[in-house]
Amino acid sequence: MGRVKLQIKRIENTTNRQVTFSKRRNGLIKKAYELSVLCDVDVALIMFSPSGRLSLFSRNKSIEEILERYVNLPEHERGR
Amino acid sequence: MGRVKLQIKRIENTTNRQVTFSKRRNGLIKKAYELSVLCDVDVALIMFSPSGRLSLFSRNKSIEEILERYVNLPEHERGR
DNA sequence: CTTTCTATCTATAACCA
DNA sequence: TTGGTTATAGATAGAAA
């Protein structure tokens, strides 16, 4: 989307990569929020920015609670 | 988006909620994939469907590796 | 529970401030 | 960097299978 069709590959220009990260991270969090509300489900989102900084999303439950729910699944249900 | 503007609140009709989950889950995973490639970052996404089934996303590294990177952060960097 | 079609609503790339 | 603006590419609600 946007003025031009983007190829999905690493953005080499550092500034552009940072700007794109900031914008798309917000978009991704918004989508995760909407999904969690509309469908009333648990969603946990963990991201590390290009500089290594952490970004998180979860609603209702804490990230830790959701991770715990995941870790506590029987092993055969944990594969994708 | 779509034929009508949707209010962001729980979809009460079970069938519609399931259908919306299927569609938006795919959209969210696609966005997470694009962000991870474009910006070359780690993204981990954990979702539980309305029926309790697990959906995961991560690229390059396994979910476990990313969770580990998160858990190993100093506590003061783990808050949002 | 997944998927196709298509009219509409959204997200965002390139700019600009 | 850090946010707006705008033209377009992309996502998706509803209907139906």
From TrEMBL, chains A, B:
Cell membrane keyword on record: no
Location relative to the cell: Nucleus
InterPro entries referenced in this protein's UniProt entry, alphabetically: MADS-box/MEF2_TF, MEF2-like_N, TF_MADSbox, TF_MADSbox_sf
Transmembrane segment boundaries: none
Keywords assigned: DNA-binding, Nucleus, Transcription, Transcription regulation
Tree of life domain: Eukaryota
Single annotated GO MF: protein dimerization activity
BP GO terms, sorted: positive regulation of transcription by RNA polymerase II
Domain MADS-box: 1-61
Pfam families: SRF-TF
CDD domains for the chain: MADS_MEF2_like
GO cellular component, one term: nucleus
Name by which UniProt lists this protein: MADS-box domain-containing protein
Species whose genome carries this gene: Gossypium gossypioides (Mexican cotton)
